[in-house]
Amino acid sequence: MILEGILATCQPLTILWIAIGVAVGIIFGAIPGLTATMAIVMFLPVTYSMSASQGIAMLMALYIGGISGGLISAILLNIPGTPSSVATCFDGKPMANKGQAGKALGTGVVFSFVGTLIGIAILVVLAPVLCAFALKFQAYEYCALALFSLSMVVALTGSDMPKGLISAVLGALLATVGLAPIDSRSRFTFNLFQLNNGFALVVLLIGLFAISEVMSFAESVRKKQDFTIEQNVKMKGAGFTFAEFLAQIPNAIVSALIGVGIGILPGIGGGVSCMIAYTVSKNTSKHRELYGTGIMDGVVASETANNATIGGAVIPLLSLGIPGDAATAMLLGGLMIHNVAPGPLIYEKNGAVVYAIFTAMLISAVFMLLFMLWGMRFFVSVLKVPKNYLLPIVMVLCGIGAIGNANQLFDTYVMVGFGLMAYLMIKAKIPTVPMILGFILGPTFEENLRRVSQLSSSDPFYNHPIFCVLIVATVLVVIFSARANIRDAKREEAAGD
Predict the structure, then answer these.
(1) Spatial contact of 477 and 152, defined as CB atoms under 8 Å apart
(2) Could you give the dihedral angle defined by the CA atoms of residues 354, 358, 364 and 370, in that order, rounded to the nearest 10 degrees?
(3) Using one digit for the tens of pLDDT, what is the confidence trace for 150-171?
(4) Distance between CA 75 and CA 86 in Å, rounded?
């Protein structure tokens, strides 16, 4: 079966479809609002006439290319192309502002490749064991996991903890708009049917990052702009030295393991994994005060984690038939279209297709590395375009992305509203990052908290050791992060004096 799967994928036509899928996925990932999920949805009908190996291989290529492509706009424009690239903005754009756009892109591309390889390796070797562990996660465990992830907000707030907590709570409140989980009661919809499904994450991200960026630039539009840094960007190799690569290996391994672990758990996704990996990297670093100012470590953590999430998300997809995120939900549809039934018996009934998928993911990762390294010099040229020409184009693309999310013009109004809110938050020096984490994790926490409240009388918490471990870990994270933030605040006060 292994040999049959490898041979099916290594056919010239299949490799051509993989190359096309990766290229298209990178483009979709780089354009804000056009996600990997959208690429898979649009190209799913194209695979109808293909064989199972060819069709699924192309869908996997779109997935890997789409997740990786998000780093381009995150670094060059400070706009995450996909939700998985949110944390890449934190240090990627500051590096570009310092004239290190090539280094930031090279770091993102190479460590995206490393993260994908680690994710695939764990997928191939440990899939049965990890799936058995994921089956143990029920309401208690998911509730504790969401609470643990939300505790990362304390670490992301920096020295001004109250403003960070305000941002996180605001994000969680925004996530309550729409139909409530479990009982489906309408909340804060004001009789607008467009709000029944709540606010879309993609629309929120476009508003927070893209529209606020345009508004901030509008303040200085009449001032003479200096583009000397952007015009003198030089590229050499991948943009960084081999010594720097070796120094980042521990960071990459930890981030990849976080990405795979988050990917295995259904419904969490790369948006959370990159944030958690970034926070862990920051908290364990000897120079945590440099994070957010343009440090290579932050880009490594984010990009390694979100690409490793791919391998993690495919594990429950193949072995349990449970999609880990929206993109793998589309992949599930693709598998069923080609008469491949995911589940515990997939290795017996469609073993060759499974190994064809593994091979296709590996080839896709190689194509992603080659295409993006080759295209870096063209990507960097985006910085040479004056912002007063570039940002209107970005606005149009953002509007297209917002409309394309659910095919409704209403989302463009929401996008502009979030952009105005983010602009005011920036003026008030309230960080927007905790809001994203609150928005993503709020629904997971709420839904499972309600289930736990129903189960607590018949199934007490001490029967769930994973829940207890996560709660203890949450308390420790809050304590140590709060101490670190207080220490940083005192250091800033001392430096001010």
Answers:
(1) yes
(2) -160
(3) 776 666 565 567 787 888 889 8
(4) 10
CB 279 within 8 Å of CB 90: no
Tally of CB atoms within 10 A around 411: 24
- Ranges of H-type helices in 98-236: 101-134, 139-156, 161-174, 201-205, 212-218, 228-231
Tell me how far apart the alpha carbons of residues 173 and 323 are, in angstroms, rounded to a whole number: 26
Cβ-Cβ contacts under 8 Å for 406 (sequence gap 6 or more): 197, 200
| Residue 99, token pair as written in the block | 């004239």
List residues bridging with 178 in a β-sheet. 187
Given the DSSP bridges, would you call strands 186-187 and 178-179 parallel, antiparallel or unpaired?
Answer: antiparallel
pLDDT in tens, 393-403: 778 877 887 88
Q: How confident is the model at residue 97 (pLDDT cuts 50, 70, 90)?
A: confident
**Residues 35, 43: contact at Cβ < 8 Å?**
no
CB 60 within 8 A of CB 368: no
Q: CB atoms < 10 A from the CB of 329, how many?
A: 17
Distances (CA, A) of 241 to 201, 365, 377: 36, 22, 17
Task: Give the global pTM.
Answer: 0.69
Q: Alpha helices, DSSP H only, in 346-432?
A: 346-349, 351-380, 387-406, 410-427
Query: Is residue 217 a contact partner of residue 391, using CB atoms and an 8 Å limit?
Result: yes
342 vs 366: CA distance, rounded Å:
26
Give residue 145's Cα distance to chain centre. Answer: 17
For residue 145, the tally of other CB atoms under 10 A from its CB is 25
